Amino acid sequence: MEFKTGQLLYENPLASKEDIENFRLEGNASITFPRGVMRIENRYERDEEKERHGNYVFWCDKDFPDNIAVSWDFRPLTDKGLAMFWVSAKGRNGEDIFSPELAPRDGKYSQYNKGDINALHASYYRRNPSEIGFRTCNLRKSYGFHLVCQGADPLPDAKYAEEPYRMEVVKSGPHFRISINNLTVFHWVDDGNTYGPVLQDGKIGFRQMAGLIGEYSDLKVHQITS
Q1: Dmax of the chain from CA atoms?
Q2: Which residues make Cβ contacts (< 8 Å) with residue 211, sequence separation at least 6?
Q3: ∠ CA 107-33-219 to the nearest 5 degrees?
Q4: CATH number of the domain enclosing 163
Q5: Which of 10, 15, 46, 171 has the largest CB neighbor count within 10 A?
Q6: What is the pTM of this model?
Q7: Which tens digit of pLDDT belongs to each residue from 157-173?
Q8: Which domain holds residue 174?
Q9: How does pLDDT run across 112-148, given as a tens digit for each residue?
Q10: Strand, coil or helix: what is 112?
């Protein structure tokens, strides 16, 4: 299925502290701009005990409609941890995810897949020791821990990632597609029944698992039509 790119709804270079002053961080992370791009890393990267609980989510403060293409540059700097993208995030009863009516969140995964929000979340850079022989990109739908789609992970280890990779997520009604450098990793169509109703509008965000240092830049959100 083809999607046509339309109006630019949002643009953020992610190049300075001022660019993210209204973003929301849940969990403990260090966010810096040493090369003029946003670098996110775990505050506890050298403490193995704390590292187990050092995951975090960094939300864009804007609300986005359905039928969007979200793109950004990503470069891994370490071969440990996980990078994930979230879209269509809202409370299970339609609340804004920052609503005080929702339970507090501090980055622990159970608060996101078994808490009081709905979202689609794709892990696109996964470097867990147990999966070194076969790496995949995974899409899950929450509420719940539903693994709804998988594809091969084309990203190299950090030592070979000399330049950033262009990521793109298309969310249009039941369609979810993730691409890296214009290569489609997977395209999933939600039947609106097996894992609950099709998700629509909401917020977007980045998640990292402890151990990963990643760089992000040139975030854009376009309206799309099919």
Answers
A1: 47
A2: 42, 45, 51, 78, 80, 81, 127
A3: 70
A4: 2.60.120.200
A5: 171
A6: 0.94
A7: 999 999 999 999 999 99
A8: 4-225
A9: 999 999 999 999 998 876 666 678 999 999 999 999 9
A10: helix
